Amino acid sequence: MSDLSVLDRARLRWRARRGLLENDLIITRFLDAHEAQLTETDVRALTQLFEMGDNELLDVLLGRADLAGPYDDPDIRRLVEQMKAL
Known about the structure:
This protein is mainly α. The chain contains five helices and no strands. It has helices spanning about 5-15, 20-35, 40-50, 55-60, 75-85. The longest helix has 14 residues, at about 20-35.
C-alpha cells in the first residue's frame, strides 16, 4: 500500500494533466488503476516522465518512439510499460 498523502495524490494528478487529450486519457487510466500502489520511487519516475513534451510523450506511450536520454531509466520504462498495457 502506498504512503502517499491525499495532497501528494492530488499534486500528482494535477501534474499529470497534459496538453494532448490522448496523453491525459492514458495517464488518467494508469493512475485510476495504480495510484493506490505507487511508491515514492514511482512518483519520482512519473514526475521525471512528465517533463517530456506532449508529442514526445505520446510517441513513447503509443510505442512509436523509445525512451532516450534522461528518460531512459528502469523505473520510467516500467511505468511506461504499465501504461501501454492498459
